[in-house]
Amino acid sequence: MKVLVHYKQQQLEGFLNRVSALNEQYIARSLKFEPLYLHLLKECQDFFQQIGDSSNESEVSRQRVYYETARKGINPQTLEKLRVGKRENTWIAAFHTLSNVTSNLQEALAKVEQTLEDTNETLGQVVLSALQSKLITEADLQLAGDSSRIASVWQKLTQQTSLKLIERKLRLRITEHDIYILVDKIFTKIQ
What is the pLDDT of residue 150? Predict the structure, then answer.
C-alpha cells in the first residue's frame, strides 16, 4: 500500500522538530534527554517500517543499538567494557547517533520534498494546458478547497487520452489523494 507523500513530509518535519528540541536537551545535559531520545528513535524506526523504507529503518535501528551499547557501559566502537567514564561515553554516543539520525531524517525529507516539487511542476503544466484547451473553466478554479469537486475535475481531465499517460506516471510516484492536494494548491494559486 502506498503512503500519502504529504503524510511522510508531515511526519519527517515533526521528527526534525523534535530532534531540534533534543539538541537543546543534549546541550543542557538534561536528565530528560535519554528517555525522550530513546522514544524518538523507536518512533522513527516504526515510521520507516510503516512506510516500507527498510534502508532508513535499519539505519535507525543501527543507531539505537549503538546508543544502547554505550548505555550498558560498553564502548560501542571498541566493544570494551568500561570501568570509568561510562556516563561520558553515553553522551558521546548520543552525540554521534543524534547527528546520524538527523542526517537520515533530513535526507528522507529532501527526497519527499523533491518528489512533491517535481509532481507539482508536472501538475501545474497539466492544469495550465487544460485551461488553455478549455478542459478546465474559470468556474472549476473556484472549486479550490472542495476536495470532492477537485477529485471530479481531475477525473474529468484524466479521461482525455493525452493526459492518461501523465496520470499513470504521477500515480507511480504519489497517491491519488496527493494529486488532489497538489491540484487544489495549484487552483488556489491560479485564481
Answer: 86
